[in-house]
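Hey,

Quick one before I head out. I ran the complex with fe (ii) ion overnight. Inputs first:
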Amino acid sequence: MKKTLLETTGFSNTYNCYVLVAYRHELNAKKPVKATVMGLDVIVVQNAKGEISVLDGYCPHMGAPLAGGKIVDDCIVCPFHSWTFNTDGQRVNEQGEPLKKQARTIQKYPVKVVGEYIFAWFDEHQATAKPFIEIPDLEYSDFHQAAMRPYAFANVSLACAVQIPYENTADATHFETVHHNLYAPRQKPGDYGYDPVDKIWFSNVYVEGYTFLEKIGIKFTFPHHVKMWGPNNACDDLPFTYSANEKLKRFLPKRWKELSFTIPVRVTILGVPTDSENSLFRMALCFKDHKQSQYPRLKFLLNKLMAKMIMPLARWEFENEGRTIFETKVNFPNVDHLPSYEREPMKMFLKYCSEFSRGKNKEHENILRKAS
Ligand code: FES
Ligand SMILES: [Fe+2]
């Protein structure tokens, strides 16, 4: 029988890290947006000033779900008896003023907005002043400082712990076997793995690959540069470089023979732990921002079209691997049988993950002990 997550990894469903709750474009001026994180239902709302709040999803009066309510004049109106709250979670009167006496509030969680992405931090004890890891600047982190924007989105729900798919970032050898159309050149020891940067970032190295298109003469290579923060967030930069192989060159006119171009592509896969055994993986396909272009509208439409065409493939690869492997695999209690160049990055990853788990991190443990 498959062991539970706690038995195999010691990874509980509470950890100290930002989690994606919504994309900006999903916000609705008239209705709260719902998200479920670690069994907790929350709502995401935005007021007229553009400030975004993440609040508990249930009304403190009699527990009605606020996601079914409305937003009126910057306030959330409960669908049950119309108690009304401002976006700070305070109950307000008809004039929108906070009620002082017998006022009940809705809990508000710390929020971070990075470009399109809205994150919240759920440390149930609020025991530390800040999460153990900050969110990188997702818009500009790589690609020569060109702003990257997501143009296509997909959600995949899997019955697995949130950190399981991210082990892949340390495992380049699975490319040939799982993703049959890709080829990862044999890595030398030290060629890939995790480089802890500032003790919080993990930047793993490269998988170069060729798609099946090589058979007809088109060669794509794409080094991966995966940046992770927390056990549940990965930003994968894979600039596709096109060139013709020798076979195709024979048929091409002279000026096209040496043609080569690179399309910077980024896939973010941000894991939302729905509970300790189930997760929602939110994928976004990003290209360079269109705003700097000479024809921004045209560039926007082209980017959108291209992203919509590639996303089903990216989604299929992820979901297929998810259903056949992530949902059914068990975690090895130790990784000592692996070759050293795989063992070290994998050990680092497992250790890194465990630090986010309540009760696993010394600093967090001490704070909890003092607090209780
Ligand atoms: S349950 Fe929300 S107002 Fe009564
Ligand atoms: Fe994979």
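Residues 168, 174, 178-179, 321 surround fe (ii) ion (ligand 2) (CB under 6 Å).

Talk tomorrow,
K.
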